[in-house]
Amino acid sequence: MVVKIKDGIYWIGAIDWDVREFHGYETLNGSTYNVYLIRDEKNVLIDATKGYLFQELMLNLKSLIDPKEIDYIVVNHGEMDHTGSLEKLVKYTGAKVVTNERCREHLELQYNTEGWEFITVDDKEELEIGSRRLKFIKTPMLHWPDNMVTYAVEDKVLFSNDAFGQHLASSERFDYQFKDLELLFEETKEYFANILLPYRMLVPGVLETLKKLEIDYICPSHGVIWKEHVGEVLERYLEWSSDRYVNRAVIVYDTMYNSTKKMAHRIGEGLMDGGVQVKIYNLSNTPMNKIMRDILDAKYVLIGSPTLNSNIYPSVAKFLAYMEGLKPADKKIGVAFGSYGWMEMATGVIKSTFERLGFKVVEEDCLTCRFVPKEEHLSRCYEFGKRLAQMDL
Ligand SMILES: Cc1cc2nc3c(=O)[nH]c(=O)nc-3n(C[C@H](O)[C@H](O)[C@H](O)COP(=O)(O)O)c2cc1C
Ligand SMILES: [Fe+2]
Ligand SMILES: [Fe+2]
């Protein structure tokens, strides 16, 4: 499938309906690897696909042009999901690889680049390809040191690579084709929360640069193309990087025999009755990336774990490591809870993660319980939740 974006610019990427795992990110809706073709005096590809999608990419490309007529392949970012097919692509097309110095280094460290011809570009540099100019804007650490975006100056099209993307396989290629726009923004938020969050302090500066450009289309390398909602997605990026939170509690737990679960639910009820929006997630059946989407702008994070063999429950340990790496905003309120049999060990591990993240830790006796919590204990959990909602923290 190929889709015309505007005269001379086409989407020729690959839709992966099957992918469910993406370096730990559970992609329940699949993903797309967007590749774009610009036809001018020089024919240009923007980014490539994962290695196994090479054939699909070639099929799409051949429906528009003889691949040997490709002059340049712009590589905005060296990660394998956009470069895995590059070795074959360079060999087959004979095209020159246009990228920045850091990305070139990353390509050389991942592939056999012998014989590749590179054009190394710097920040704000332009490349003329006929009637068009391509302008390269470096966006280091969003989310690798090698990231850049490419702006087709005359067309007002921004090829943003990972930025503004979503892991979402769909037949729709453009935002305005989506009936449920909020769903699209939720997917975009989830992507932000799991890919860009640790580097969010760099986002406002990049947005300032982008605001100086006129942008008719944002063409990311995953998900749909932004056309009708360009301003809105830029605004949402600013909002998600602001560290502002809403009055939401995210309660995350795992459990062996449901004791920790009972506590989670009662604390949640108290918070709800206290007027807080509550989300409760069991780690055994919820992808961590979904949970991080809600933690991004939550005021409260409550994490529960039973004690297993003098330690925290493994799925909770895994979640803590994941969350800590993503460095959600500090000044959140952290609560650790859990059931144990004879010597409680789990909540200390949770609390030390909260402390490293700069969360304000709230503690109470009722947050740990020996074996199965009795009704009296659960009602204390409920009261705690209700009080937490009112605490002036
Ligand atoms: C394999 C296993 C190992 C356990 N190890 C410990 C332990 O080292 N220390 C402890 O205090 N409790 C230990 N427990 C007891 C549990 O923490 C206790 O049953 C708790 O109520 C489980 O909570 P849950 O229903 O939320 O899973 C262990 C339980 C199991 C099944
Ligand atoms: Fe990436
Ligand atoms: Fe990517």
From TrEMBL:
One Pfam family it belongs to: Flavodoxin_1
A Gene Ontology molecular function term of the record: oxidoreductase activity
Domain Flavodoxin-like intervals: 249-389
Alphabetical list of PROSITE patterns matching this protein: FLAVODOXIN_LIKE (PS50902)
Superkingdom classification of source: Archaea
Species annotation: Methanothermococcus okinawensis
Protein name: FprA family A-type flavoprotein
Lineage per the UniProt record: Archaea, Methanobacteriati, Methanobacteriota, Methanomada group, Methanococci
